[in-house]
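Worked example 3 (structure in, sequence out).
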């Protein structure tokens, strides 16, 4: 019996074992780094997630080792196992598996930032590699991922030399038994690649979702698997353009929701908005706050005292406590806030080769004689922000190149307080022209690489919390320095986040990543109160126009929150979307899976089977709005 066993069997087992152990190393590192998300999960569930991870690791290991194992099998029968061949096989495995380990290492900080495993969306940052790698190099948290990567590569190199030190023993003579078992071994490799025995479907991302714990559901995934799967999905023609429902049906649904009785063929979502009485020619200062989740604020239950100024200011203005960002990326936040269009899965609307023109905040206010300007702390080419805004009625974009070089402290450019300090004289100049202005700011200090200037003294020990404190302090400086200026008393300040932070991991769509402060502040002009209506980032532009009482044509998916109410608000996180009302959260996945939760109670029980009509209404609302947005953008009718 022993003689019938292929001589390469121990090599097969050793190679698989080595790769699987090292993959598990990365999973355990992620588990340790994110241990705060376990939330009292039973050890049995953790073990099940790790076993699920072994299944996905087998898939990736199969892809990586299939060709080398096929070569070794053939050569073990033909006698071609020369030293240089063995070295070539070792080198091939070392290079390909090391690249897989690189993805696993990158996944650790990526998951911490986005609460989802590595996907093709990560490459939306790589339009400016120098900017991205500079940002990574300057943030110590990201360096930690290098440690398991280097350890894994060294262990792999050492293991390969032990497993394949020289030529393999040959299968001589080649018997029916050794040939049959060798073929069977290779068959098991390809079965492992498929991941499942069921003939209907191979292993999928959804296979990993086995519990009500959102973190453990994702722990079992291999980031190489999610990266490849998301890339393949992004290349699928059906996924390049949303196909959530029929275009005509979606547009008709949204037209009914907006009360558009006589649609314009050129702009099917357009509705003319007018107001009685004269317009208020107030200036507008819009601050899009980097990563400022509502869950960082004391008024939303945070006990760390990170945002004392924003908490205080929110009680002195019109504050919406149920506001949500369109997506989870900064470009989603800029696009959604200024132009009132939603995030559509992985699409990056500001980087499309055919630059579209939107009638957004800048364009609508330019029609009323406003001067338009945008401030950022860093390179204006990142995310194509500068080019996109110039093409969409922003007359001036102030970037890192406009500040003294000595004030750029990280790849993200100047700290928030310095951006505000340099902006105020510019706004003085605009005000002196005798026309109102609209100025948008994109802050950055609440994003790594973190920089805390020596003149600021935070009370927190954690660098991320310190950054939030500094961001809040910078907002205080903005208002304090603005208050003494001639234009302050006729200026509407608006504060919203580009997106939140993955603080809460109750669901696989992190609500804290979408829940954002939304504050309209203008002492003596805007009544101070709290509004608990459902609101979205996409509603900022129409609501500003409503506060200004400035007539405009609204061609967007946003509403004036003072003149209308939403039944739901919808959000998107690359491969999934959420729809919320005051009680329910519906999460929809690309593969058609739907789940319904009572998010106010943080319930992890999927109630979709018990409330099918609630699921139907919420899902139809979310799909119709996103599909209608896709249609008008694709047809150039935005």
């Amino acid at each position: 019996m022993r003689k019938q066993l292929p001589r390469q069997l121990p090599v097969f087992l050793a190679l698989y074992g080595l790769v699987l152990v090292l993959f598990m190393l990365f999973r355990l590192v992620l588990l340790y780094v994110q241990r705060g998300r376990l939330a009292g999960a039973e050890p049995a569930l953790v073990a099940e997630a790790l076993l699920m991870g072994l299944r996905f690791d087998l898939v990736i290991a199969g892809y990586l080792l299939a060709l080398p194992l096929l070569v070794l099998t053939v050569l073990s029968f033909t006698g071609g196992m020369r030293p240089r061949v063995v070295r070539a096989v070792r080198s091939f495995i070392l290079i390909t598996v090391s690249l897989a380990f690189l993805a696993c290492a990158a996944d650790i900080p990526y998951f911490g930032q986005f609460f989802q495993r590595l996907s093709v969306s990560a490459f939306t940052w790589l339009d400016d590699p120098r900017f991205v790698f500079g940002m990574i190099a300057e943030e110590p948290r990201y360096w930690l991922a290098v440690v398991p990567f280097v350890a894994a590569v060294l262990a792999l190199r050492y293991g390969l030399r032990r497993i394949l030190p020289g030529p393999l023993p040959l299968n001589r003579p080649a018997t029916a038994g050794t040939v049959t078992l060798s073929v069977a071994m290779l068959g098991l490799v390809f079965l492992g690649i498929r991941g499942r025995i069921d003939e209907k479907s191979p292993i999928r991302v959804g296979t990993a979702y086995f519990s009500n714990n959102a973190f453990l559901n994702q722990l079992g995934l291999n980031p190489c698997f999610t990266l490849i799967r998301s890339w393949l999905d992004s290349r699928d023609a059906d996924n390049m353009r949303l196909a959530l429902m029929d275009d005509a049906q979606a547009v008709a649904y949204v037209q009914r929701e907006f009360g558009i009785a006589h649609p314009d063929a050129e702009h099917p979502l357009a509705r003319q908005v007018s107001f009685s009485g004269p317009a208020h020619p107030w200036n507008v200062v819009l601050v899009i706050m980097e990563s400022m989740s509502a869950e960082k604020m004391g008024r939303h239950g945070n006990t760390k005292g990170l945002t004392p100024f924003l908490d205080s200011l929110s009680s002195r203005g019109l504050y919406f406590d149920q506001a949500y960002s369109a997506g989870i990326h900064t470009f989603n936040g800029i696009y959604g806030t200024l132009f009132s269009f939603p995030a559509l899965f992985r699409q990056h609307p500001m980087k499309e080769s055919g630059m579209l023109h939107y009638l957004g905040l800048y364009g609508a206010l330019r029609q009323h004689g406003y001067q338009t300007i945008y401030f950022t702390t860093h390179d204006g080419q990142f995310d194509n922000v500068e080019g996109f805004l110039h093409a969409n009625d922003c007359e001036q974009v102030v970037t890192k190149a406009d500040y003294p070089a000595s004030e750029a402290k990280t790849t993200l450019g100047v700290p928030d307080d310095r951006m505000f300090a340099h902006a105020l004289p510019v706004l003085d100049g605009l005000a002196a022209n005798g026309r109102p202005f609209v100025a948008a700011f994109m802050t950055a200090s609440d994003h790594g690489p973190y920089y805390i200037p020596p003149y600021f003294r935070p009370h927190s020990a954690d660098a991320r919390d310190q950054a939030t404190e500094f961001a809040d302090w910078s907002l205080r400086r903005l208002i304090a320095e603005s208050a003494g200026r001639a234009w302050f008393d006729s200026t509407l300040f608006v504060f919203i986040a580009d997106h939140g932070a993955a603080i809460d991991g109750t669901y696989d769509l992190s609500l804290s990543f979408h829940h954002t402060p939304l504050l309209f502040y203008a002492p003596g002009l805007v009544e101070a109160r709290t509004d608990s209506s459902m609101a979205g980032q996409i509603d900022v532009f129409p609501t500003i126009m409503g506060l200004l009482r400035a007539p405009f044509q609204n061609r967007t998916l946003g509403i004036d929150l003072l003149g209308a109410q939403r039944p739901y608000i919808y959000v998107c996180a690359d491969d999934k979307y959420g729809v919320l009302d005051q009680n329910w959260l519906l999460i929809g996945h690309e593969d058609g899976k739907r789940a319904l939760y009572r998010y106010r109670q943080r319930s992890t029980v999927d109630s979709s089977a018990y409330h099918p009509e609630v699921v139907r209404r919420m899902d139809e609302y979310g799909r119709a709005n996103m599909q209608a947005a896709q249609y008008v953008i694709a047809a150039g009718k935005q």
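Notes: The radius of gyration is 28 Å. The longest strand covers residues 283-289.
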